[in-house]
Specification:
The structure holds two protein chains of two kinds. Helices cover 59% and strands 13% of the residues of chain A. Chain A is α/β, with parallel strands linked by helices. A five-stranded mixed beta sheet of chain A has the order 3-2-1-4-5, sandwiched between helices. In chain A, α1 packs antiparallel against α6, α2 (43-59) runs antiparallel to α6 (208-283) and α5 packs across α6. In chain B, the strands form two sheets. Chain B has a five-stranded mixed beta sheet with strand order 2-1-9-8-5, with no helix packed on it. A five-stranded antiparallel beta sheet of chain B has the order 4-3-6-7-10, with helices on one face. Chain B has two domains: 4-85, ATP Synthase, domain 1 (Sandwich), CATH 2.60.15.10; 89-135. Chain B starts with a strand and ends with a helix. The longest helix of chain B is centred in the last third of the chain and has 25 residues, at 111-135. Chain B has helices at 90-106, 111-135, and strands at 4-9, 14-20, 22-27, 30-34, 41-45, 48-54, 57-63, 66-71, 74-79, 82-84. By secondary structure, chain B is an alpha+beta fold. Classes of the chains: A alpha/beta, B alpha+beta. Chains A and B meet through α2, α5, β6 and α6 of A and β5, β8 and α2 of B. β6 (203-205) of chain A pairs parallel with β5 (41-45) of chain B.
Chain lengths: 284, 136
Amino acid sequence: MANTREIRRRIKSIKNTAQITKAMQMVASSKMRKAQMRAVAGRPYARMLDEVTAHLSENSGEITHPLLDRREIKKRGILIITSDKGLCGALNTNLLRDVMKADTGNSVYVTIGRKGRGALARLGKDILADFEMKENFRFADSKRVSKLMLDKYLAGEIDTIEVYYNKFVNTLVQEPTQTQLVPIQPEMLGHTEDGTRKATEYIFEPKAQELLAQLLPYFVHYELYQRILDAHASEHSARMVAMKNATDNAKQLVKELTLEYNKVRQASITTELLEISTAAAVLA
Amino acid sequence: MPTLQLEIVTPEKKAYEAEVDSVVLPAVEGEMGILPNHMPLMTAIQAGEIRVMRSGKEESLAVGEGFVEVSGNKVSVLTEAAITIEDIDEGQVEEAIKRAQEALATAKSDPDEVAALAASIARSTVQLQLKRKKRA
């Protein structure tokens, strides 16, 4: 049986660990809330973007634009959003497993997050670019990613823009999700909230077609921005849950060890008492 | 007198919302003044200054590229960044310009990088000019 001092030392070290994981849990939960709030703050923009596009497409007749064009897929452009840091459960592993399963061999990758970059580099995949997204990244930062991919798409180097990320469902559930941003699905365009909008005569400056051509990339920029926020929220909620489990486990361990410690202490007291009373009996 | 309902939104937040008397926009084909009862209009804007007349006082905002829709007496501005003049921190903006220019000097080879940095310099410069003008 281990001696009391050793057990005491273990208890102390586990308590320290629990304190750290508890702190990480709190930090993650506040960061998660922040990411969610930022995602909500972007809604008015999304709504207006939808409305403007709807009006434009009503007024510009048949739309033809490279971003709407479904061409033969020779090269897939895939963006993978993972976290920079670990300690967030199976979040990145699950996502990367999905990516590998869907890998058709004709893909080039763009990565956000150190975990995804590392995994793809180990597998020797074709990585086009790697971006860093810090906690408080701005729209302009995410726009650089979408801009790069759009340019490659328009130059014909890739034929799709797909995104793999962890969709935030709720605090306990994050789903690895794959979505296609480009070519833009026509259904995505031109739905207004009321649906019963009367056609109004607009002045367009420049022409409706040209305006729409300028507007479409913003769809992609915005969608990507939202997805990165979503991935951040997922990362933090996964970390929060992982850290909560770690804290709970540590507490459980401390409990068991305390019991053990008390048993050892009790045993040594009993032995001592026994020795004393034996000695007394012998002397008497 | 009727008023315009002006709304400026960015992907990050709703930057401005108020009843105003008139708006001047930095449209791609030149500055454009909007008064109440304007015809429905849609246009693209470039990085620049939005001037707002609100109950007799003039306010200014620096905005990035974006789009404007005027319909009824509602003016909606969709832009990637907007900042009111009071919020512009001159030192910070100068710093940003300097940083971007330094980065530009080292990033000459990558056209994407250069374009992004040039845009960010343009944005910051507009903010700075705006702030300086107000003080003069």
